[in-house]
Amino acid sequence: MAYSRSDALENIGGKYKGISFCLNERSRRIWAATEAKSYGWGGITIVSEATGIDHKTIRKGILELDDKENIPGDSIRRKGGGRKKLKYTQKDLLRDLESLVEPLTRGDPESPLRWTCKSTYKLADELSNKGYKVCQRTVCDLLADLDYSLQSNKKAREGANHPDRDAQFQYINEKLKYFRFRKNPSISVDTKKKENIGNYKNEGKEYNKKGKPIEVNVHDFPDKKLGKVSPYGVYDLSENKGWVSVGISADTAEFAVNTIRCWWYIMGEAVYPNSDELLITADCGGSNGYRVRLWKVELQRLANELQMAVSVCHFPPGTSKWNKIEHKMFSYISENWRGRPLITRETVVKLIANTKTKKGLEIKSMLDENEYEKGIKITDEEIEKINIQKEEFHGEWNYTISPQ
């Protein structure tokens, strides 16, 4: 039965549309060649017109049908077939691309990409200016060949290392062992990041109905009435328990020591009823810094009040992230309130107090509504009255303040 040209085109086009989704490059040209041969003279033209497959591809399929024995069974193309990669055909392409990505070490110091973001589109433009024929997608593949990938900044450097950094860590470790052996309390203290109170965005995500996120203020300007809060924490290194005072005033040494005082009376005293000494590990800076005079004066008042020697070990400069409270307590607080606006001060207190972990972390929290004055001056005479004993090893970092 003879088919008209229009019927043939419709018939072949229908067949191809029905099976094209499951054909690979080789099976497509073999099928097209088979159809073309079945139509005889003019079959290649008809199949090409009906399917959009190139004439040369169909002729290649016919040659394969006529020479089945010499065609490898598993391969789609003959070995070495296909267009060569640009990195092989365009000499020095990889070298010039890497010089653009790394202008400080390998490339031209006047390269415009030194002062712009190095997107694949801009890299492609720069390579085109050098005479290469590349597109943005090709640049992506070439960067992968050079072992580059998209990377965000990583916080890892905290400034210059002190030469006695490791020795101070070892000293703190031995001190902690000694206090645990004697069953005396050892705590880690620090101030958490200040938080805006109000309907502000809080980093992180929380489940809500799809398409119904919590709407918050566009700008983060502090509310004049609610202001900010300063959570100062105390973490018991032996008991995995903590205390946080949520301050509404300045983050001063007086506030820091009052937080330690609250922890002792509400949590610590019941756990360590017979203790005669307290160990505090703290950062080198901030309200509890080793150079802060008010910190030592307030610790003297605390020692007198509790009739207990207060030993302090400061972490070396540039090592604040080693402070245990950072990753043993503060990190879990941040995780617990992620994605939730801190609408009120009470919200902050409750979210902190409800922070739990599988390892049994327990935190108590309270709003500290005291007003703490900033810029209190401590005289030399007041410093001389402090009953302080400095250790032989870095006495500025390691010292004990005993009751007067």
Highlighted features:
alpha/beta; elongated; nine-stranded mixed sheet; Nucleotidyltransferase, domain 5; 404 residues; 40% helix; 9 strands
General description of the model:
With 404 residues, the chain is α/β, with parallel strands linked by helices. The chain folds into three domains: 5-70; 86-145, no CATH class; 165-206 and 218-401, 2-Layer Sandwich (Nucleotidyltransferase, domain 5). 40% of the residues lie in helices and 12% in strands. The chain has 14 helices and nine strands. The chain has helices spanning 5-19, 25-39, 43-51, 55-66, 86-89, 93-101, 120-129, 136-145, 165-181, 253-271, 293-306, 324-336, 345-353, 380-384; strands at residues 186-191, 195-196, 228-236, 241-247, 277-282, 309-314, 362-368, 388-390, 398-401. Helix 11 links the parallel strand 5 (277-282) and strand 6 (309-314). The radius of gyration is 36 Å and the shape is elongated.
